[in-house]
Design brief:
This protein has 246 residues and is α/β, with parallel strands linked by helices. The protein has 9 helices and 12 strands. The strands form 3 sheets. The chain has an 8-stranded mixed beta sheet, sandwiched between helices. The protein has a two-stranded antiparallel sheet with strand order 5-6. About 5% of the residues have low confidence.
Length: 246
């Protein structure tokens, strides 16, 4: 089983609110189909969800509950809207995709449902969303990748981003690390988007990738905007950066 994170910067236009990149998503879906492997999909929110979550400060917990309740509804509705758009594209491309929202909380039954759906021959599609337990919070797609990849003992975890991988020097495109350890990942400079992100950002991504790698799952960070990269990563070919345990 392969777990794939479709980054929000790839499947949406992050500079425009609620702007879905249907063409890019369709091409990525085509590569998934052509690779012929069983996959689980996690996607980011990109220009969906983040603006609403930021406006209502949901990442800070309840600071003005009466006002933030509306923000929870708006944020969840926005990310569900994106999720439905992705499902429409996937199904049209022959992927039997099923939505699995993490709202209102992540627990053992959620992870068991991911496995149950995948074992049935369907493709679970989940996403970063609002969490509502004792307090309000945001769970990122990166954290979901960590939980699902480890629970499923995945063959590999692929992070589809808008960059070629991890760079030793952000100013030198020639410094791409084709392979690095978890510790090297922590210290490497990473090229990334500076658009609004109310999840834990790159620090959270690095933490999740390290934990996945430490668990024994092969991690790949690739540029999804370049045709063929996702197909090759699914097939086990070396593209982007591969992260291995220390």
């Amino acid at each position: 089983m392969i777990v794939i994170k479709l980054g929000g910067s790839v499947i949406t236009y992050k500079s425009k609110e609620n702007a879905f990149n249907a063409r890019m998503t369709k091409r990525l879906a085509k590569e998934i189909v052509e690779a012929g492997k069983k996959v689980i999909i996690v996607h980011g929110a990109g220009s969906f969800g983040h603006p609403q979550a930021k406006e209502y400060e949901l990442h800070k917990g309840f600071v003005d509950k009466e006002r933030q309740i509306k923000g929870i509804a708006l944020t969840h509705a926005s990310v569900r809207k994106l999720n439905m758009k992705i499902l429409d594209v996937f199904i049209s491309m022959g992927i039997n995709a099923v939505s699995l929202p993490p709202f209102p909380s992540i627990n053992k039954s959620f992870l068991e449902n991911v496995k149950k759906i995948a074992d049935a021959g369907l493709t679970p599609v989940t996403f970063g969303d609002v969490m509502l337990e004792q307090d309000v919070s945001i769970i990122s797609g990166d954290k979901l990748m960590e939980l699902i990849a480890m629970h499923m003992k995945a063959e590999r975890a692929i992070f589809v981003t808008d960059v070629d991988g991890i760079f030793a020097d952000i100013k030198k495109s020639s410094s791409l690390l084709k392979k690095c350890t978890s510790d090297e990942l922590q210290n490497a400079l990473v090229k990334g988007s500076k658009a609004i992100d109310v999840t834990s950002g790159m620090a959270g991504k690095v933490k999740s990738i390290k934990r996945i790698a430490y668990s024994g799952v092969e991690v790949h960070i690739i540029n999804g905007k370049k045709p063929g990269r996702l197909f090759n990563a699914i097939k086990g070919k070396r593209v982007g950066t591969m992260v291995v345990p220390k």
